[in-house]
Amino acid sequence: MKDLFSEQSELYQQARPTYPQTLVNCLIAQLNGLDCAWDCGAGSGQLTQLIAPYFQHVVATDLSQNQLDQAPALSNVQYLQQAAEQTSFADQSFDLITVAQAIHWFDFEKFYAEVKRTLKLNGLFAVIGYGLIQLDDTDLNQRIDLLYHQTLKGFWDAERRYIDEHYQTIPFPFEEIAMPQFQIELGWTGPQLWDYLNTWSAVKHYQDRLHVSPLVSLEDILQIQQPIAVRFPILLRVGRLATSG
């Protein structure tokens, strides 16, 4: 499991998009129990805080203590610095296990072994993420698309391809449940969009290697004060433990 975001934990907490309540409602409706949930790769708690109101207890884990330190303090949530692939949890502990915008960094085989060990027999496992940002402003959308596909080409970690492939190519050894499609819809000012772009791992790699920001050509967006309509397609794989085999 990689840790790429400890150095930007505060910015990550402030600038990353939140998931829609409709997605959370859909997951909760699939559950057979609401005792305990595990949000793995929780970062600064973007998803944790949305699922917490439904459960007696939630554990949120991440490899980065800096990220967890930015998460909101909630009475029924325990934050633990643990790798996804090796945890301290008892067998069959969880009604729900989630991993949001993180599974592409994991060792799939080892993580799935932990999921199968710690998920209750009738529990639910949900892999969640979001794809490339889309903007209603055609010109700005094209410029960000150019940044993503050309300027930053060669600076993305290899694992990013799983996001580009909408998580459809990750191994998923569970009995999959068909789910509706969701998207994140937000209104961001130029500075908010700028902050989000600065959380991209490839932007950090570019700066570390070339000692200059790849966002220089986009600095004019800092002047945009009116909200810009932005969307992210939700990536979603949901399943239960296989009943045979």
From TrEMBL:
Gene3D superfamilies: Vaccinia Virus protein VP39. It comes from the Bacteria. Keywords: Methyltransferase, Transferase. InterPro entries: Diverse_substrate_MTase, Methyltransf_11, SAM-dependent_MTases_sf. Coiled coil: none annotated. One of its GO terms (molecular function) is S-adenosylmethionine-dependent methyltransferase activity. GO terms for biological process: methylation. CDD domains: AdoMet_MTases. Residues 39-126 form the Methyltransferase type domain. Belongs to the methyltransferase superfamily. PANTHER family: METHYLTRANSF_11 DOMAIN-CONTAINING PROTEIN, METHYLTRANSFERASE TYPE 11 DOMAIN-CONTAINING PROTEIN. This is Methyltransferase type 11 domain-containing protein.
